[in-house]
Design a protein that fits this description.
This protein is mainly beta and about 280 residues long. It is built from 6 helices and 14 strands. α2 (about 50-60) crosses α5. The chain is globular.
């Protein structure tokens, strides 16, 4: 399986043979985390490390502040996208998003447009040849944070069922970064297989000087069987610029197994243009 196919498989959701990702989950150093019991009935107890929460609050402040970020109802971004198929292909891209659960990505390549739409419980990918592929619920969750990484941080702090764990000041991608893991905790009834939370976990790497998000790392899983160990996957953020008082990453790079699959260079960001449900119909 070629790493260059992962971006469209996960975010633009091109099919990968007969398999599709069951969920974008973050899974770095599984065995290194421990949790203190705080939540009766949960398979793994919830933990909110105070140091981790403090760093997330500093990141939210660096991004523009919770009050300013809370004013975001929707946003639209335009720019270019370069995808490494058999060889690099560049086109124009438009990203429209509302919250964590509604997003539309129109990528115009020389052979035509690929449109990904997510709305609530799922979505679809329409390929240039007119074929449509479903995007299932677990793959659709949190897709809206692809280009604006503050949204899941705010949601995690406010969610008593999400663990926020401090992984230390580490060296990641050749630079120092705070490693903060977010992991949803499910009850036995919600997750009989007892692995959903681990598979959905994400590590946020935060610059200790600017407190901006440098990258988000996770693992992609296929099939969910005992031999499915997951594929390392990461989205890197850089070239932050202030847009309406919000520090917005204008360069976004996606990698799988350390190989760059996609680069977005955004040139224009518009907040609160009045996007409606009809913009995310599929």
């Amino acid at each position: 399986m070629k790493a260059s196919r992962f971006f469209l498989a996960q975010y633009l959701h091109l099919p990968l043979g007969r398999s599709r990702p069951t969920r974008l989950g973050l899974l770095c150093a599984i065995g290194l985390w421990s949790f203190a019991p705080t939540n009766a009935g949960a398979q793994n107890p919830v933990q909110h490390d105070q140091q981790a929460v403090t760093i997330l609050n500093q990141t939210i402040a660096a991004g523009g502040g919770q009050q300013q970020l809370a004013t975001i109802q929707d946003f639209t971004e335009t720019g270019t996208i370069t995808h490494n198929f058999a060889e690099p292909v560049t086109g124009n891209v438009t990203v429209k998003s509302r919250g964590l659960h509604q997003v539309r990505i129109d990528a115009d390549f020389p052979k035509g447009r690929r449109t990904t739409v997510v709305n609530g419980e799922g979505g679809s990918l329409k390929q240039a040849d007119g074929r449509n592929w479903p995007i299932y619920r677990q793959s659709a969750n949190d897709l809206g944070s692809l280009t604006l990484p503050y949204l899941p941080l705010i949601a995690a702090i406010q969610d008593s069922a999400t663990s926020i764990v401090y992984g230390g000041l580490v060296t990641h991608n050749g630079a120092s970064a705070y490693d903060i893991r977010l992991q949803k905790v499910y009850t036995k009834q919600q997750d009989p297989s007892e692995n959903r939370g681990t598979r959905e976990a994400r590590d946020f790497y935060i610059d200790p000087n600017t407190f901006l998000v440098a990258s988000v790392s996770d693992q992609v899983h296929f099939g969910g069987g005992p031999h499915d160990k997951g594929v390392p996957h990461e989205v890197l953020y850089s070239n932050y610029q202030s847009e309406d008082g919000i520090m917005t990453p204008l360069t976004i790079v996606e990698t799988a197994r350390g190989v760059t699959g996609l680069t977005m260079n955004l040139s224009q960001v518009t907040f609160n243009s009045g996007l409606a449900d009809s913009d995310f119909a599929w």
